[in-house]
Amino acid sequence: MSDDIKIFDQTSSPGPLGFIGLGLPSVILGLQGLGIIEEPLSVISMAIFLGGFAQLFAGLQFRKKGDTFSAVAFTTFALFWFSFAWILIAPFGAAPLSGISSAVYLILWGIYAVVMTAAAVKTGVKSVIATFVFLDLTFILTGLSAAFPALPAGAGAVAAVILGICAMYTGLAMVLESVGFKVAY
User: Which one of 28, 123, 143, 151 is at 20 to 30 Å from 100 when CA atoms are compared?
Assistant: First the structure.
């Protein structure tokens, strides 16, 4: 008889929460960028409470599961949403973020996202890869349009909506699969 103790993790996957926490705020942000949603309050609330907290909770749970890629991806993008919400709120007492400052902020996040996309490709999960590719496009296109106002701002907003749809699809497919549905993702 072996004295080895084996522990099996039977907790649920935090992945759906993290992907939905990315998806819904991204769609709202993209719709605002396209002028469909005018007031920033829905973006700010989604950024803090879904993008920030949901992804933070998911990332911390992945950390407990030993999944470094998911832990880092979800917790850092949670911090992105918190920082982005602060940028939208901060002009109460601070100067608004300038075009070049916005560009640098977004392009740095884009560079980080591209590196994380390389890790996402290694997962082999098509919807996760698509989510990260559109995340890259959202950051880079939005950053470039902030740096160069002559570029169309709508390209980054369209990428954000597609990003959100990809992320929500991934999260919801995981939920459906967990209850026995066969969903390709």
Answer: 28
Compute the average pLDDT of residues 28-44. Answer: 94
Do residues 44 and 88 lie in contact, with contact meaning Cβ atoms separated by under 8 Å?
A: yes
Query: Can you read off the two tokens belonging to residue 158?
Result: 């369209």
Give the residue among 126, 124, 138, 22 at the shortest CA–CA distance from 73: 22
Which amino acid, one-letter code, is at 4? D
Token digits of residue 100:
């070049």
What pLDDT digit, counting tens, does each position of 111-157 carry?
999 999 999 999 999 999 999 999 999 999 999 999 998 888 799 99
Dist. CA 10–CA 121, nearest whole Å? 26
CA–CA gap between residue 53 and residue 36 (Å, rounded): 25
Q: What is the 3-state secondary structure (H, E, C) of the chain?
A: CCCCCCCCCCCCCCHHHHHHHHHHHHHHHHHHHCCCCCCCHHHHHHHHHHHHHHHHHHHHHHHHHCCHHHHHHHHHHHHHHHHHHHHHHHHHCCCCCCHHHHHHHHHHHHHHHHHHHHHHHHHCCHHHHHHHHHHHHHHHHHHHHHHCCCCCCHHHHHHHHHHHHHHHHHHHHHHHHHCCCCCCC
Please give the Cα distance from 131 to 26 (Å, whole number): 11
CB neighbourhood size of 62 (10 A): 22
